[in-house]
Arginine--tRNA ligase
Amino acid sequence: MASVTSLTASVHARLSAALTSALPEAAGADPLLRRSDRADYQANGILALAKKNKANPRELATQVVAQIENGGLLADIEVSGPGFLNITVSDKAIIETLAARYADGARLGVPPKDKPGVTVIDYAQPNVAKEMHVGHLRSAVIGDALRGMLDFTGEQTIGRHHIGDWGTQFGMLIQYLIEHPGELAPADEVDGEQAMSNLNRVYKASRAVFDSDEEFKERARKRVVALQSGDEETLRLWQQFVDESKVYFHSVFEKLDMEVRDDEIVGESAYNDLMPETARMLEESGVAVRSEGALVVFFDEIRGKDDQPVPLIVQKADGGFGYAASDLSAIRNRVFDLKATDLIYVVDVRQSLHFKMVFETARRAGWLTDEVTAHNMGYGTVLGADGKPFKTREGETVKLEDLLDEAISRAAEVVREKARDLTEEEIQERAAQVGIGAVKYADLSTSPNRDYKFDLDQMVSLNGDTSVYIQYAYARCQSILRKSEGDTPVAHPELELAPAERALGLHLDAFGETVFEATAEYAPHKIAAYLYQLATLLTKFYDQCPVIKPRPEQDVVENRLFLVDLTARTLHKGMALLGIRTPERL
C-alpha cells in the first residue's frame, strides 16, 4: 500500500515553505489554498498575513513567488489583484501523481488515518413483530454508508442494530401465542415474506383480543412482568417472535443490498440486566435524583412550556425502565466493553432532544469524555411529491419492501430500454443494482439532516444528479476499455494535456481528501457530490478527447485509456463506499 501525496497538499507545502522564507514570523501560517476558476488553485492567506505584519500584500506575494521551489510541480504562478496567488500545476505533475494512485490498486493511494479508533454505529433499527416502512430507510442507508467510509479510512467499526424487542406489547403477543399455540412456525421453516405474514397475523389478532377482552388484557400485563422477571416459558415464546422477525429483517436488508450481521442485532432486551445498575450508579453519583418517586436527570437549559426543567426519566415511579435507561446502559456497554472511542447514532431528527439529554447525562457520569465522544446523526423525513411525509394514496405508511420493489421495477424499464446485448436475466440483475442504487443515492446525495422528496421517476433518470448517471459513466468506461483492441492504459507524463484531461485529472486526485473530509464530518453527501462531478467531467472528456475513434497517436491513446481506467476505479470505489454497485454493462 502506497500513500500518495495529493497535488493540493504538495502545493500547500511549497507555499508554506516559501511564505516562511519570505516572512519568517509567518512560520506555520496557512496560505489558505483553495480551488479556483481562474487557475488550478488560488492562495488568499497572504492578504491577512500582510495586514497582521504591516507589510504590503502585493510585495509580500511577489517575495513568496520568488522563494518557491518548483521542482516540476508548477507550470505557472502569478500575483493577482491586491496579493492573491493564482497557481497552475504542470501536466507532468498531474499524470505522475495519478500514476502513483493507479499503481496502488484498490486504495488509489489513499492512506488510512494515522490514529484509527473504534466507532460503534447504531443504525437500521426495526421493531420486532412489525413491518419495516419508509421511515426505516434513512437510518439503514446512511448508517451503512458511514460504516463503509469509516472502514476505508482504517477505523474499526462495530454495528449495533438497536431493535425494538422489549416492552408491554410483548406481553400481549406472548399471551396470545400461549392461548393459540402453533400460530408461529419455527424461524428456519419460513422465508422473509412468510415470516412477516405470520407476524402480522398474530399481531393483528392479539391486538383485537387485547382491545376487546379486559381479562385477556390483564393476563397480558402479567405476562409482561413474567417476561421482565425471566420466566423460562415466556422467554422461549418471546424468542420465537425475535427469531421470526430476524428472518424478515434479513430479507429486507438483503434486498437493500446491505450486510447485517446477526451478532450485531442487539436489541433493548440485551440491556435489561444492566438497567438497575445504571440507575444505581446515576443516583449514587448524584447525576440523577428522585422526583415524585421517579429517578430523573434535570437540565437547566432544557425547559418546557411553563419554563420548568424537562427531566430525563431514568426510572419510573413504579420501578419500570424506559428508553433512557436502555440507551444509557448501551453507552456503558459500548464504551467499557466494546472499547469504543466514538459513538454514532443514526436516528430520526425528532429524537434529537432525547439523545442530547442522554449524552449529557453520560458525560456527567464520566462515561463520555473528551476521548470518547457521541454524535447524533439526526436525519430528516422522506417526503412524497406533495412535500408531505411519504404515504400511500390511502394515507397509510409505505412498506419498505413495496417501495424497493417499485424502484427495481422502474429501473428494469430504464435498463431494458438501453440494453443491447443483455439477456432478460441480466436485465433483472442490473435492474436490482440500478433500482436499489437509485434509492440509496437519492438519500445519500442529500445532507442527512434535511428532508428530501421521494421521486422514483427522477431517481432512475439517466440525466441529472442520480446514481444511474454515475453507473452509466462507469459502464461507459468499461465499454471503452473493452473496445481498446489490446491497447494498454499507460501514463505518459511527457504529454501535454487538453483542458478536459486536466480537469478530470485534478478531480481524480482529490478523491482521498474528499473521503477524509466527508468521513470526518459524517457527510456521505459530499462523496455523492464528488462522484457526480467526476461523472460529469468524464462526459466532457469523452466528448472532447477521442480515445479510440478517431484514433489519436499511440501514446495519447494509452494516456487517455489510463485516465479512463483510473476514473472507472475511482467511481467504483466511491460508489462502493456508499453501498451502491456499479454494473460492468448497462
Observations:
- The radius of gyration is 29 Å.
- Residues 7-89 form a domain with the Gyrase A; domain 2 fold (CATH 3.30.1360.70).
- The longest strand covers residues 74-80.
- The chain has 20 helices and 13 strands.
